[in-house]
Amino acid sequence: MSRAYNFSAGPAALPEPVLEQARDELLEWKGERASVMEVSHRGKAFVAMAEESEADLRTLLAVPDDYAVLFLQGGATQQFAQIPLNIATPGQAADYLVTGAWGQKAVSEAKPYVNARIAASTEEGRFTDVPDADSWSVDPAAAYLHYTPNETIHGVEFHALPDSGDVPLVGDFSSTILSRPVDVSKFGIIYAGAQKNIGPSGLVLMVIRRELMERSGQARAKILNFAAQAKEGSMLNTPPTLSWYLAGLVFKWLREQGGLEAMAKRNQAKADLLYAAIDNSGGFYRNPVAPRARSWMNVPFTLKDAALDSAFLKESEAAGLLALKGHRAVGGMRASIYNAMPIEGVKALVDFMADFARRNG
Ligand SMILES: Cc1ncc(COP(=O)(O)O)c(C=O)c1O
């Protein structure tokens, strides 16, 4: 076995006990004499698993009863379009706080359907901070206010909930869902692609205030209709059964870890360790993000000389530290330290970084 510490931004590392359980029951699942991928999604065993996964998720996130939980497809990207289609009328104003590349994409994908307004953007500062609330221009008649609680590429995270007043708040939680507790009642919609903190790709988790599903929205096929999905238990068509099953195992693992309070403590400790290593490197490593907005999940950093990048990547990979190459929009390195990354992995990374700096400083 040569499994390494995997710092990939997504698809990302999964908890090892989850992979082990999946391996153990891959050929025969729950006495079905077939694998979970080979049985009907309408059969008793799968439906029971789906219900249990929703119940576990509701416990983890303390989801109030007036919210539905949906297990959708199409990635978070599809939601950039599907959300306006469901909760805004054609051309209605919809507001966006843009703090990085994913927020920008959410705006551009919504434009065919709504008057997507940028209520605030930190682009001028190269996406290294969150905007102060007094700088936002939110339209009280907007269908919703959309933001990205954690920008995966720029490593910028909101550490406080934006106050959207009476406008429903919509959060793209793709890279921070389940990393800490969140007050669901403050949101209209929370959604997240699965492939970082939930499970494998192919699944999108959505928590939506039921009342929003009563909005008429816009002309759309039934498969894109949240209310229709909710009515059918997210099984209007064949769901990604393997991804759903693995997400269910991850929810159980999170509960065994002590839930989201415990994960928040661990995640903060991991992030503190890594940022301290960067900040105390005498300028060898740098993270450009304002301390108040530094992500607990995705930590981009540059080396003092980009000519050292390829050696850093080659040597880190040889040391069992995978996928540290930064996104091309930001350059340098990026360490994604989601729930499944143990503190030992971050310790191994900071030790490697200190050693590399000593040898190349
Ligand atoms: C914050 C955020 N939103 C959206 C996406 C797009 O997700 P998907 O590939 O599931 O469409 C990503 C992917 O990395 C992301 O990090």
From TrEMBL:
Subcellular location: Cytoplasm
All copies of domain Aminotransferase class V, residue ranges: 5-349
Pathway entry: Amino-acid biosynthesis; L-serine biosynthesis; L-serine from 3-phospho-D-glycerate: step 2/3; Cofactor biosynthesis; pyridoxine 5'-phosphate biosynthesis; pyridoxine 5'-phosphate from D-erythrose 4-phosphate: step 3/5
EC number: 2.6.1.52
Residues with N6-(pyridoxal phosphate)lysine modification: 196
InterPro entries on file: Aminotrans_V_dom, Pser_aminoTfrase, PyrdxlP-dep_Trfase, PyrdxlP-dep_Trfase_major, PyrdxlP-dep_Trfase_small
GO MF term set: O-phospho-L-serine:2-oxoglutarate aminotransferase activity
Family matches, as PANTHER family: PHOSPHOSERINE AMINOTRANSFERASE
Subunit structure: Homodimer.
Protein name: Phosphoserine aminotransferase
Organism: Pseudomarimonas salicorniae
Gene that encodes it: serC
